Amino acid sequence: MTAPIYDRVALIGLGLIASSMGHAMKKWGLSRTVVGHARSAKTRDAALEIGFCDEVFDTAAAAVAGADLVVLAVPIGAMAELAQEIAPALKPGATVSDVGSVKQAVINAVAPHLPGSVAFVPAHPLAGTEHSGPHSGFATLFQNRWCLLTPGTADRAAVEKLASFWRAMGANVEEMEPEHHDLVLAVTSHTPHLIAYTMVGVADHLRRVTESEVVKYSAAGFRDFTRIAASDPTMWRDVFLTNREATLDILGRFTEELFVLQRAIRMGDGALLHDYFTRTRAIRRGIIEAGQDTAAPNFGRNAGEGS
Ligand code: NAP
Predict the structure, then answer these.
(1) CATH number of the domain encompassing residue 189
(2) How many domains does the chain have?
(3) Ligand 1 lining (C-beta closer than 6 Å)
(4) Which of 150, 203, 226, 262 could bond to 103 as cystine, CB 3.0-4.6 Å?
(5) Which pLDDT tens digit goes with each residue over 283-293?
(6) Above 80 in pLDDT, residue 299?
(7) Domain that holds residue 28
């Protein structure tokens, strides 16, 4: 147990990320009180029953009253309305943060509604699984994962405190410009997810390979795609709608590279293919050396997707 970093943390949205934060706060004693709000009574009841919240509220405004840290952990498309709703109820001096997978769009949606008396420090933990909802969280989700902060000109004391909070949950913290964050994530997460969705769609449409064959012979490659393509549809819809430019940029480059490989296959250009795969293999080794390919402890499978 460490000393509590906050007195009262309010989690708005009680799904995978928020419930994991709740479990981590309880496990390491990072907040004296953890309160929450979700849209449905079912989710709010589950949070209490599971025990990662001490108290839940029917409205977001009631949940944030008196909180030192408010975390918006809802799909990106819901953030603007929630920010507007909670703004009058925020405690002066509080920190408002979020965990959204796209940063510039969240800043545009949230910042205009917040009073000048609070610090807004956007955050994005690069951790996740294909599961969602209050039952899917676990305390070690953020261990050895990155949490990127895009604080802009926010109060430095508030930024440092939030950074220490994420470190206490096991994350490595770094700061970035929001626009750069969105480009980096378009490369490392958003476009790969789109490719996984597409590949699973292709298999679904291909009538020459039966469904049972796809299931039966789904060795590593395709099986990994299906796991990624099982990620929450609402969350991912919002990611592509809000990180449009960066994703389209990377997708354009991806298509060009794909045509290069397609041509090499057609022309029997083994040297090109071999060189290409040698370069990509080096990237893979770099990821392993950086320790970013570890399965999350106590979860029994790879939990590194995130967004
Ligand atoms: P999730 O498991 O699907 O949970 C979403 C939660 O938000 C649910 O508790 C839902 O309540 C609540 N909610 C949705 N709309 C709401 C509204 N209008 N008002 C109040 N509550 C509302 O989602 P998640 O995976 O934790 O993702 C949350 C955020 O984290 C997203 O912005 C996502 O981009 C980001 N993120 C996700 C991952 C990942 O891999 N999953 C990784 C990093 C960041 P009900 O259950 O009552 O509907």
Answers:
(1) 3.40.50.720
(2) 1
(3) 13-18, 38-40, 43, 73-76, 78, 82, 99-101, 124-125, 128, 132-133, 232, 235, 305-307
(4) 150
(5) 888 888 887 77
(6) no
(7) 1-307
